[in-house]
Amino acid sequence: MAEIGALIAAAGRGSRAGLPFPKTLYPIQGKPILLRIFEMLRSYDAQPTVIVSPSGADPIAQSLEMAQMPAHFVIQPEPRGMGDAVLKYAQSPAYASAEHVLLIWGDVPFVQPETVSEMVAAHLREDNDFTFVTRRVARPYTVVSRDAGGGVAGVIETREAGGAPPSEGERDIGLFVFRKRPVMETLAQDLPGRRGRSTGEHGFLYVIEHLVHAGRKIAALPIAKEIELVSLNSLQDLNGFT
């Protein structure tokens, strides 16, 4: 089986949610989000890599140490966007041996093990270069565009593109698996869409369109459950779950 390295993007500082600690450490039913993610990914990578901010490095390391969950840590010195964070994976000791990368945002507490399993199985079975999970929702923040044959054409972040969300559409949930080399090479290039119009940050989802244009094999699997859409941007997002 191809070597899979797990990568958790957990550099969110929690300030926008009014938290004095990294938002990935926010407890859901008594367990921090990050620990829930670790438990789900351990069958793919016994020592995942976590991208952390300078201020979040110590509390995140302490939380994982207390839970006896080994990890590699890579610091993103400045919040320069998700694409910049993913590129930092090259600094991890796990980078060299990983052929594929299983990437998950560090603020999604309810992604289910069976969803990850189905995504990874499809990715390897179909020999994809990039596979991700989606769901059709009202007013999606990210929008998957498909061609006439139903294939993925790209993913638009509506805020960064300078537009308003459509009334309905297909969106990602922050869960991806991809072949390392073509994605990291694409992220490293100065390509159209690299910088968001709103924030100026280095994005991530724009790489999908460039991979499509390069003839890479991309799949969006509309298998996400409604609960898997929940992410921690503000504490109101978790009403009824804590």
TrEMBL record:
Keyword Nucleotidyltransferase in annotation: yes
Name one molecular function that GO assigns to this entry. UDP-N-acetylglucosamine diphosphorylase activity
Tell me which residues make up the MobA-like NTP transferase domain: 6-144
Q: Which family does it belong to?
A: In the C-terminal section; belongs to the transferase hexapeptide repeat family. In the N-terminal section; belongs to the N-acetylglucosamine-1-phosphate uridyltransferase family.
Q: Does the keyword Transmembrane apply?
A: no
Explain the purpose of this protein. Catalyzes the last two sequential reactions in the de novo biosynthetic pathway for UDP-N-acetylglucosamine (UDP-GlcNAc). The C-terminal domain catalyzes the transfer of acetyl group from acetyl coenzyme A to glucosamine-1-phosphate (GlcN-1-P) to produce N-acetylglucosamine-1-phosphate (GlcNAc-1-P), which is converted into UDP-GlcNAc by the transfer of uridine 5-monophosphate (from uridine 5-triphosphate), a reaction catalyzed by the N-terminal domain.
Protein's name according to its UniProt entry: MobA-like NTP transferase domain-containing protein
Q: Which Pfam families match?
A: NTP_transf_3
Q: Which residues cross the membrane?
A: none
User: Highest taxon of the source?
Assistant: Bacteria
Reactions catalysed: N-acetyl-alpha-D-glucosamine 1-phosphate + UTP + H(+) = UDP-N-acetyl-alpha-D-glucosamine + diphosphate; alpha-D-glucosamine 1-phosphate + acetyl-CoA = N-acetyl-alpha-D-glucosamine 1-phosphate + CoA + H(+)
Tell me which UniProt keywords the record has, alphabetically.
Acyltransferase, Magnesium, Nucleotidyltransferase, Transferase
